[in-house]
Amino acid sequence: MSVPIRVAAATSALGLRLDADLPPLVAALRSRGVDAEAVSWDRADVDWSTYDAVVIRSTWGYCERPASYLAWVDAVEAVTRLDNPAAPVRWDTDKRYLRELCARGVPVVPTRFVAPGERATLPERGHFVIKPAVSSGARDSARYAPEHHDAAARHIAALHAGGETAMVQPYLSRIDEGERALVFLGGMFSHAMRKGPVLTEVGVLDNDRHPHPGLARHTPTTAELDLAAAALSVVPGACPLLYARVDVALADDGSPVLMELELVEPNLFLADNPAALHHLAELIRTRAGG
Ligand SMILES: Nc1ncnc2c1ncn2[C@@H]1O[C@H](COP(=O)(O)OP(=O)(O)O)[C@@H](O)[C@H]1O
Ligand SMILES: [Mg+2]
């Protein structure tokens, strides 16, 4: 009898309880004869070399300790196949990649990065957003009006005190029409969802916001698909990626702009997309050598 392929779906204590994609993904892998299990990335007692592949799923909390997370990423890749691989993961953990995409002609949300020690010039007109360069789940992010300059400056000072680089962006009000999340599996477009705005209140920092309110299926436009392809073409490392999520918002003129490229641990909305779930399980099995 042949030995089954072993796959770890890397998660976290919170992910084990709350990641809706995790149980169906593990079940879909097991139904293909893969010896799959969900394992918290920060457990000290795991020998990752015993897996044929480690698939990054809900490794939530990595933003609070990016250095130890990236050390884990490198350590795992040194002993087995890591999907997504370390190079794109490292690149994607810091939204300063938006600069590179912008320089390569990809339309992105206009962004100013303010590193610790630098002074921010805040917009005099229109609502704007302050958020950290390393983030997920709208962590430490808030929307401000020009009359809130003092609160916004305090927000930036708090990020700097934690050693973090702040981002200043205009608030894209057409996000009310939905932020688009285009999911790619094995380098091919798979499915897309639309979600409502997260930063609905002005001047409020609230880390308990739902990161994906009002989810609905979305059929991307050609312009959105073109933007996603252009963004993905800039990602470093060997292609194709196991998965990618390209988050797109609409600028004031209605043209799509990149909000972020999610290559680390995006919610892929698999529970709502059974065909994508099984396609991903099959990709994982074959990439792991099965
Ligand atoms: N410039 C912006 N304009 C409008 N909404 C924004 C803007 N930046 C962030 N948001 C809102 O905050 C959420 C989280 O921001 P995002 O850049 O996606 O960071 P994260 O990595 O934390 O998901 C977005 O999904 C969106 O609803
Ligand atoms: Mg996001």
UniProtKB/TrEMBL annotation:
Highest taxon in the source lineage: Bacteria
SUPFAM superfamilies noted in UniProt: Glutathione synthetase ATP-binding domain-like
Name of the protein this chain belongs to: ATP-grasp domain-containing protein
Organism: Embleya hyalina
Higher taxonomy: Bacteria, Bacillati, Actinomycetota, Actinomycetes, Kitasatosporales
